[in-house]
Write a structure and sequence with these properties.
The chain is mainly α. The chain has one domain. It starts with 5 loop residues before the first helix and ends with a helix.
Length: 71
């Protein structure tokens, strides 16, 4: 089944444009969310390698939203 929704294509395109390191950070964030579903700390409080304010500022919001939906 192919999803023709342009909004989803945009998220997919943005994620595929990430560097390997940026994608690895996104996966580490997703893994943390999966293991800590009951917690809601600020991103700056997380001890995730590569996750810092510069990474968050650089990431499109759609990528950060995606990390929550990949759980």
């Amino acid at each position: 089944m192919t999803n023709k929704n342009p909004r989803h294509a945009s998220v997919r395109d943005r994620i595929s444009a990430l560097s390997d390191e940026e994608f690895a950070v996104l996966l580490r964030l997703k893994d943390w969310r999966r293991a800590n579903q009951d917690k809601t700390p600020a991103l700056r409080e997380l001890q995730i390698e590569g996750l810092n304010t510069k990474w968050v500022e650089k990431m499109p919001r759609s990528c950060c939203r995606c990390s929550r939906t990949l759980i």
